[in-house]
Each structure stands twice: as C-alpha cells, then as structure tokens.
Amino acid sequence: xxxxxxxxxxxxxxxxxxxxxxxxxxxxxxxxxxxxxxxxxxxxxxxxxxxxxxxxxxxxxxxxxxxxxxxxxxxxxxxxxxxxxxxxxxxxxxxxxxxxxxxxxxxxxxxxxxxxxxxxxxxxxxxxxxxxxxxxxxxxxxxxxxxxxxxxxxxxxxxxxxxxxxxxxxxxxxxxxxxxxxxxxxxxxxxxxxxxxxxxxxxxxxxxxxxxxxxxxxxxxxxxxxxxxxxxxxxxxxxxxxxxxxxxxxxxxxxxxxxxxxxxxxxxxxxxxxxxxxxxxxxxxxxxxxxxxxxxxxxxxxxxxxxxxxxxxxxxxxxxxxxxxxxxxxxxxxxxxxxxxxxxxxxxxxxxxxxxxxxxxxxxxxxxxxxxxxxxxxxxxxxxxxxxxxxxxx
Amino acid sequence: xxxxxxxxxxxxxxxxxxxxxxxxxxxxxxxxxxxxxxxxxxxxxxxxxxxxxxxxxxxxxxxxxxxxxxxxxxxxxxxxxxxxxxxxxxxxxxxxxxxxxxxxxxxxxxxxxxxxxxxxxxxxxxxxxxxxxxxxxxxxxxxxxxxxxxxxxxxxxxxxxxxxxxxxxxxxxxxxxxxxxxxxxxxxxxxxxxxxxxxxxxxxxxxxxxxxxxxxxxxxxxxxxxxxxxxxxxxxxxxxxxxxxxxxxxxxxxxxxxxxxxxxxxxxxxxxxxxxxxxxxxxxxxxxxxxxxxxxxxxxxxxxxxxxxxxxxxxxxxxxxxxxxxxxxxxxxxxxxxxxxxxxxxxxxxxxxxxxxxxxxxxxxxxxxxxxxxxxxxxxxxxx
Lengths: 394, 384
Fold this sequence. Notes:
The complex is a heterodimer of chains A (394) and B (384). With 394 residues, chain A is mainly α. Helix content of chain A is 70%, strand content 0%. The relative contact order of chain B is 0.10.
C-alpha cells in the first residue's frame, strides 16, 4: 500500500516511470494514452476514408476518375458538379415545376389518405424523374412502415410486459394443422385461396371454442416473446418467394402497401424486443393508480405509459426508420417499376449500358446516405445515454 | 335510491335491468386481445404462413402458367440435387477424394463429437440429448465437407462460403470491436467524438457500402492503385482470385458491422464499476491483468449475447457480394441467400426455395447450438 502511494508521488519518478506509469489512479500513462489515441485515430481514418472517397468521386468528371486516383480536390483535380447535374438533366421530367407539382400532390394525398372517405386520392404524376420518384417512394414506404411497426410492436410489447397470456398448446396445434391444410388444398387440389382460408378460419374458431376447453397445457408470455423475437432468425429469402406469390395472388405486387406491410413485419421483432424492456422497467404503481381511477387500458397505455417511455420510443423509431430505409432484398423481389426505392435505384445504376459511371453513382449514394447519417448521429445520442442498451444486457 | 344489494352483475344496473354496454366498454373488456392481436396476425400472415408455404415450393417443381402456379410434387428431389446431383459443386463444392489432412481433420472432429456426446449423457435429459445429437451430426457433416473440399485443395461451395463469412467474419468483428470499445472506455477525452464517428458505418445502406468498397478496392481507379501497382506481378487482381475476393468481402462486411459490436461492448464496459478497476490499479495490476481478471468476467454475458445477434444477422449477407463481385469469380463469393436469389432469377422456384430452406436449417442449428451451449452457460454462471 505504502509502495503504491510512494510511486504515485510525482517528484521521485524517473523518466521511464513517468512515461509508462499512470500519474494517478483513474488516469493513463502518457505512452498508453498516446497509443490509444493513435489506434483510435487510425480506426477513424479507416471508417471515414471510404465515405470521403465516395463524396469526392461525386465531384469528379469522367477524366478525373479514369486517369488514375486523385485524392484531394482543387489540388489534384478540379471538382465539377457534372455528376449532380446529370441526375436531373438526363431525365426530361426533372424540372422545378414538375417536382413542385409532385410535392404538392404528395402533400395533398397524404392529407387525403387520412380523411380518405371524404376526399378522393389524386393520381400522382405519371412521369416524374426517376431519382425524385425513388426518393419519395423510399420516404413514404419507410415512414409508413416504421409507423405501423412501432405502433403494433409497442402495443404487443406492452401487452407482453403487463398482461398474462396463456394460449393453449392444443389450439396452437390446431392452428398449425389448419395452415398446413390450407397450403395443401390451394397448391395441390386447386382450391381458391380465399375459400380455403375462410373455411379454415371458421373451423379454427369452432374447434377452439369446443375442443379448446378440454386442453390443459398452455404456454406463457415468455414463450410468445421468444416466438416473436425468433422470427428475426428467419432468413428473409425463405419467406420472400411465398410472399411474392401471395401478393401476386391479390394483385398487390409493385405497390406501396406491399412494401410497407412486409417491411413492418420484418422489423417487428426488434421493436417488440427493445420496447418490452422499457415497459418492464416502468414502476407498475402508476398504472395501477390510473386503473383505480377508472382509466381503460388503452387510455393508460396512451396517456401514462407512452409518455414515460418517450426516449426509448424515439430511439426505437429512429433505428427502425434507418433499417427500413436500407432494406434491399424485399424491395428487389416486390418492387420493380412504380415503387422502386432508393436502394433499387442505386443497384440499377450498376448495370447501365455505358458501363459503371462511378461519378454519377457516387452522387446517388451520397443522396441516399445523407439522411441516414443525420439520423445515425441523432441515434448515437440515445445510445450514449444507454437508452438502447437494456435489451442486450438481458 | 337505496342500493338493491348483493346480486349486482357487471353490465347491469342495481335494479337488475341489463343495459347494453357501450363500444368503449366492449373494447376495454377485450383489450387483452386487441393489444397483441395485430402483431400476432401480421407475423402469422407474413412470417409463419410463408415459412410453411415455402415447404410446398421446396418439395415441388413449380411452373408459371397463364392461370397461376402449377405445382408438381417431386418430394425431396430439389434437396437431393444439392447434395448428390448436378448442383453439388455449386452448393457443397467439389467433394473429391480426401487428402490425408482432410481425413485427419474429419477423424478428429468425429472423435471430439463422440467424446462430447459421451460426456453429455450424464448431465442432460433425453430432449437435450436429441438436440446435442443434431448439433453433433451437423458438425460432423460440415467437417466432412471441409475435409473433402478445402483441406483437399478443391473449390468450396456456397455453404462453406457462408460459414466463412459468419465464423471468420464474426470473430474478426468481435476482436476489433471489443478492442476499440476497450480503448474508448479508458479515461481519455474526446470519447463522444469517436463514438459518433465509429457508429456511422452501421447505419449506411449495405448497398452503398458495397459500391463505396467497390470503388475503394478498385485496382486501376481506386485510391490504392499505387499500392496495387507496386505489389502485383502480371496483373493479379483480387476479384479474380477466389480466396482474395472472399477475404475482401469479409473485410468490407466487417467495416460495416464492427460498430455494432463496438457500441454494445462499450455500454457493457462502462457498466463495469470503476472502483474495481481502480482498486486493482492501486494494487499494481497491469492493464492486461485488469482486463483479464476483472473486466472480462463481467462483460462475458453481454459479449456472447452480442455475438449471437451478430451471427444471426451475418447468415443473411447478400447485398455486398451481389454488388461487389456479383458472386464471382465463378460462384466463389456467393452466400447462400445470393445462391437462392440467382436460382430464382433463372425461374427455378422449387430449387430456390430448397436452398433457402437449407439456409434456414443451417442458421437455426448453428444459432441454437451457440445459444444452448455457450450463451445459456455464461448467463447461468453470471447469475450464480
């Protein structure tokens, strides 16, 4: 003990000690902190360099890209806005009036959608420049999908945190059996899908009401939670082919609705998992006192619980928004013409007839990742507050 | 009015006259159902039903006709094709005669598995034993493939490529991510700056990452052209060499996913009580000793959980190889998702679904094994 305090005394230390030993408890020695900074700076370089390269490539022209690597704008090469201009000039419908008209229609339609029985939706511009269309598609799809996903997921998470469910194993077995019967009937016997599924649904309620009373074994909340979260293990490629066929059957391929629903379900497990943790950590007394005052469960959820979890809700929403914005595989299968999203649009640039136009592609990538980086920086604030970490700690 | 007394029923007035309940009351009475029903219904329609439906595709030959799909049941032909038939080279690789290294490796894995099973018979129930049998069977099968292809000098298929991305990639990401998190948890200033910077790659679209990396790794126009120009003899390019292409792919995937490990491990590291570390420092423990004896045991439960989550996501890799190499050279950078997608493009829906199902099987067995034998064990030990 005395030796340690002696060593921490500044006056008596040799040069080596000063360099290699911490000056005080909870500090780092000069050499160690130099090393740490060097490593961290090196990794920052690794992280930032590809992004920097994309950004400067978007300001190059064909010559600056093809004649070998140039690193610093203004010194090595003269930056131009050609690539950016090309995004808008190559398309005949990219002038300001038609984009303004499109934005106006979009705003009107989103209002009309809310009051939809009263006002009818206007058809959008038939011809609009591709990049703008992709951008709006991406915004519409990811915001709507995030809204559905967070609303549905938060409700389910709250329910799993506060209400006891006991689904009977027998009922679950009946349900699975009926699904298998539907599938066999529709694909091998040629029964129309709507007939098969409505018969199966009726049969399920009938059987659950009659036979269901006799089953004893039941599952708990933990099982339901595990079931929902384990959907994340499912590789999307397994479900995307049947989903494609299902949407084809109801003629919803290449529509916003299809993408919104599928995106929402793909991220539901994450929302349920993260949100449940926030709900469990709330003190239950608040809800109990609200219940005593005669509030319904929906009102408790809306007016007591949700405001208390606002930071968690915001972080989860942001994360879901980013994941939806980036989604690629489902979009490849389900959207090919009208509702192309940004990732599809970028991927299409790869196979142009003129070869890969690096500078134009960089411009598109920059357009695509700017919103994401802004959101990511916002999200780090929540993460450094430890808001999202509860779920991982288990 | 005096209260009638005992027999007040819910929904009835004290006088016993039944009132019709309002919509709000009805909604509230069934709130149990309404809270969870939307999530369950959505998952049933878009996850459970398609998963079952996919089996039909995998077991049939599917034709697109004018009036819809026509299924013809072919049982396990689509699967058998992957293991024995003409798709074997694509999926498993060229399984030829085993070299002695391969045979040795295969034998070692069999012995290890048998020994492990023998030791487990004493501690688990028969359910646990069945699970362990499945895990062991898959380990032996993968060992056979590794022995027959990789260790005997034959080209490997999409199965091993996917496993390479998952196992080697996750290990690399975990080591670098934890290392960075450890550095950032030290008492240095400017932590928040590094945190924001390091977090960015995770959020960029994987597709954008693919293109950015394609540009950066380009041999003639990329920033490392002088380096490549000096180092390469007779026009060696990474995109023409199977292993170099796979490693480039894995590094680019790691670039994107290290932040995930970093951010979660940093949170875990900051939860380690500072006074434990400082007490050890006063006692004269070195940095390595502190990490090994004090910090590491406290973060192991989080570490294995994070690794599990990362593994689950790693099995789904598709965008990067699709963009950077298109699966090439040949099919050497194809992951199983990409494999399935390319077969789908060739309109062979049945085989595509079969490959997707094999991926599901691989993912589930690997992740469940990791969860049961590693994560659960660590969590239990942490609780004791």
